[in-house]
Amino acid sequence: METNETNTPDTPDTADTADAPERVSLDGNAAVNLAAEQSKNTAHRNIPALDLDEIPLPDDTANLREGPNLHDGLLGLLPLVGVWQGTGQAVDLAEDGNHTEYAFGQQLVISHDGENYLRFDSRIWRIDEDGNSTGADQREIGFWRISLKDEIEVTLTNSRGLVEVLYGEPVNERAWQLTSASTIATETGPSTHGPGKRIYGLMPNNNLGWVDERVAPGSTKDDISFVPYMSGELKRIAG
């Protein structure tokens, strides 16, 4: 197993990057009204329940109106709960430096079971210029936690043979930034996938925008630069 474990305490603030979702101020009443209008189409939808009695635990829910109550410790992440779907752009970070851009579709399920963590489940598929699927790309599953001091901890496992630990904090009540503490690639995983940073944020239209950048090859601790890796804009479809 190949281990690319890197500490990046001096990483620049993700919120300051040019590619981060633009944070445009939105009047509080307008935001509430917009969210209420959008929820008319999503409030009745949820992820399917297993409805099994084999274990004495509640099913996951991606709808705050259904299932167990959200743990009080997760209030700082509450707006993320839901099922999100949309499109984005990505770059294949090839070892020979010949990067290839492609478009993708994504479904992101952020759910909870009443305990003090969120479950993160992302499915991505490649799409052509007409928006038609050309096949599966990657999956990512993990958990988000946040402390009483608003310190976010995220663990993610990627289907390409990657495990990543990220730490971060809220930018405000509608945006969250994360920085890699370590990345581990399996023997068959991508050796060029170094540490990076992400930002997730609710846009003025209440869509979820996100950006993932990776440390550029040749960077050092004293001279870190980043290259775009993936970004997307997702609309809430349930919750």
Structure explained in plain terms:
Residues 1-23 are annotated as: Disordered. A motif (GXWXGXG) lies at residues 82-88. With 239 residues, the chain is mainly beta. The chain has one domain: Calycin beta-barrel core domain (Lipocalin, Beta Barrel). The protein contains 1 helix and 11 strands, in the order E-H-E-E-E-E-E-E-E-E-E-E. It has a 10-stranded antiparallel β-barrel with strand order 2-3-4-5-6-7-8-9-10-11. A hairpin with a 6-residue loop joins strand 3 (100-111) and strand 4 (118-127). Residues 1-28 have low confidence and may be disordered.
Structure summarized in a few sentences:
By secondary structure, the chain is mainly β. Helix content is 5%, strand content 45%.
Which keywords apply here?
239 residues, mainly beta, Lipocalin, ten-stranded antiparallel beta barrel, 1 helix, 45% strand, globular, disordered N terminus, Nitrobindin, Nb(III)_bact/plant, Ferric nitrobindin-like protein
Helix fraction? under 10%
Radius of gyration: 18 Å
Q: Looking at the structure, what is the overall shape? A: globular
Helix and strand content put the structural class at mainly beta
Could you tell me how far the N terminus lies from the C terminus, measured between alpha carbons in angstroms? 39 Å
Number of helices: 1
Q: Mean pLDDT, nearest integer?
A: 85
Looking across the biggest beta sheet, what order are the strands in?
2-3-4-5-6-7-8-9-10-11
Beta content comes to 35-45%
Model regions low in confidence, pLDDT < 50 over at least 5 residues: 1-28
